[in-house]
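User: Hi! I'm working on a homework problem where we have to compare a predicted structure to a textbook description. Could you give me the structure for the chain below?
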Amino acid sequence: MTSPRIAVVGAGLGGLTLARVLQVHGLPVTVFEREPSPDSRSQGGTLDMHVGSGQTALAKAGLLDEFRALARPEGQEMRIFDEDGTLLFHEQPADGDESMPEIDRGQLRGLLIGSLADGTVRWGHGVERAAGRSVLFRDGSSEEFDLVVGADGAWSRVRPSLSQVTPAYTGVSLVESGFEEARHPELARLVGDGSMSAYGPNKAVVAQRNSNGRIRVHAAYRGPQDRPVAEVLSMFDGWAESIRALLLEADEPFEARPLFALPVGHSWPHTPGRTLLGDAAHLMPPLGAGANLAMLDGAELAEALAAEPDVDAAVRAYESAMFPRAARLGRFTTDGLDVLFSPEGVKGALRLFGELTG
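Assistant: Happy to help. Predicted structure tokens:
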């Protein structure tokens, strides 16, 4: 029997996991990525990989041991402060706890890329759109496949062939920068081995340790997404100097990152020859679910394709499991964002994290 021709649009974590698990099962796949090379841009900060989702996907990919060699279980430490700098919540992982260890996104992506057969990812192949079973590239060329999977993120080029829904602004934005621990050891001690956050009404300062002595820091707020950086930083005037220093001592240019999401429960009529995974399917607020869910999507779609010779039947099985799971986590993250950025300030944050860890 001839293997199906499978195209994955986007070399993010979900698309790469799909490709890896397909190859584990002996199925060929081609990944199209618009970036010219694996190292053409920074891949962002750190991620927590959850037992039952991200780690399950890595196990299906045969990469769990390699992941654990790179992961930082100590990164599960969490601290919550109020705007006066008072520590109100502190959780440290128990010895041997690897339920949600941290790993830099770039390290995880590199692990997945390195696990693929040579030539799997075709770099510098930007996709314009999908139509039927065709992938149309920005250079005007096209290729035909039995299945086209949109794994190309929030602003997916494949999604419009399945759904006319587009992401909407959540009402929360952040500006992001970072600093080196070696230059600011006292600030690094405030952050600890994992993450810290300080909350006030409708705003927060969040810092998270990455590998190699780097700490990412964000000023986040509920309000218009186009506020100038200086105005955002001024929103924290009067907060504890130790908290404000995380922002004022940052040594990278601040970058604005408004948060967008697809509607909770986003889905589409089953369409032969096309489907979506990860943020392309269910973009949600970044409260720890997105990357884990994208990787689980990819692993489960690959296993369905390996188990079912009828591609259309395999995609139906994948979508029937993915839609309700994404709706459940989409509701959780949307409600969580509303709690964290509310007039309650730190009281809401303490209630939310207390429920999660209690």
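For your comparison, note the following. The chain has two domains: 6-77+96-167+262-340, 168-260. The longest strand covers residues 168-180. Good luck with the assignment!
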